[in-house]
């Protein structure tokens, strides 16, 4: 991407750039114009990029693995638009070239007081610490590239057609004819994309797309916000761009694993929002902090998924005593969470089914990909072990007559083991607790129902995972049955070892208890 930025600066030097993934295409020909309205607005000189929502094609009608991710794109991103702006998600984004070069937004002390417009600034005016002699260190040895920087900044200013515009450019200046490209210019463009050009420069560190992270898109957007720029979320009536997404369970988990690993890297790097400058707003800082922290919630989520099963195995509830105060507190918290979810759904326009799919996949990914990301991220940070990732597979299955054939294809991965263990433990716990309740002298069905409710709630979240694991009849890999059988046998033997029968009259009531 940085090579394209440099070559385009030499050839055309457009003040704005559009970034799309290779699997995305323009669905709305007027989307770029709508984004330009924000960039060229009288108060838009400090906008670094315009982020459009991602929309996908080829997703199964039920959206089993929450590929549309409407809760994020229609909820979270719209909420960030009210702060300093949405995060950069790697595609469907229109950039201001000058902001991507690593400069700060225009300041008030650079605004002329004599007229409604200002002249083009010199490169050294953008950064007081940047001397002309230091340009090669930051941008490379190309003089053509260095000379294009102030021109790109000047052309990106709003039109000075109103007295309120104090940092603008005269109308019609962009209509001036450009000189045709010659052999020298083309040779310069080839030179700036060479492999050696970035050596001993700040490309990838302070200039352009940032290197050193799996999720370089988030880091690049964070650096801009950290300098004081703001971004805008542009939701068009007709989808601006459309692309494809993995509908296979394994491919989807690997995609989430890559994102989560990048978030862990961000948390342990200098790009942690806690280390940001004072130019980033407090709530925006919290949003970026959440980007780096969310994979670590998998540790608590794993515990919460096992607690209902442990409760059923031990015959005791999750807490020591059940009194009116505890039940009232639990009911209050539950009602607040449900009310908050309903308000978010109503405000963002997300359907209840889409919200529920998002909740299901949050638990599936949290107990598999997010947990693995924490382990891999810690290995990279502490032990220096690099993890290589492949591009997310988004190809269809072998059945050309079925566009959703890839949805039913089962590809084994070790990421499936934790959800399988959670599901098997909760199923076995329900069976054991049900059998114990039946053979009790005084069956306590209310106690069983109260404990089993939470296990069924966990299993309800794992339902899409179970469907993806089974695939089509007769096409489930043998390794899935082998692992499921081994896990079931291991858990059964573990339960027998922990909770042995003391005598024939114990009626399955003995066992370990919580302190």
Can you give keywords for this protein?
515 residues; elongated
Assign a percent range to the helix content: 40-55%
Which structural class is indicated by helix and strand composition?
A: mainly alpha
Please report the distance between the alpha carbons of the first and last residues.
58 Å
Summarize the biggest pleated sheet: 4 strands, mixed
Low-confidence stretches: 111-118, 502-515
| Average pLDDT metric | 82
| Cα-atom radius of gyration | 28 Å
Principal-axes geometry comes out as: elongated
The SSE order reads HEEHEEHEHHHHHHEEHHHHHHHHHH
* Number of helices, where a helix is a run of at least 4 consecutive DSSP H or I residues: 19
Query: What is the strand arrangement across the widest sheet?
Result: 1-5-3-6
Secondary structure: number of strands? 7
Strand residue content? 5-15%
Report on this model:
With 515 residues, the chain is mostly helical. 48% of the residues lie in helices and 5% in strands. The strands form 2 sheets. The chain has a 4-stranded mixed beta sheet with strand order 1-5-3-6. Helix 1 runs antiparallel to helix 8, helix 10 crosses helix 11 and helix 16 runs antiparallel to helix 17 (445-461). The longest helix is centred in the middle third of the chain and has 25 residues, at 324-348. The relative contact order is 0.12. Keywords: Cell wall biogenesis/degradation, Glycosyltransferase, Membrane, Transferase, Transmembrane, Transmembrane helix. This is Cellulose synthase-like protein D4.
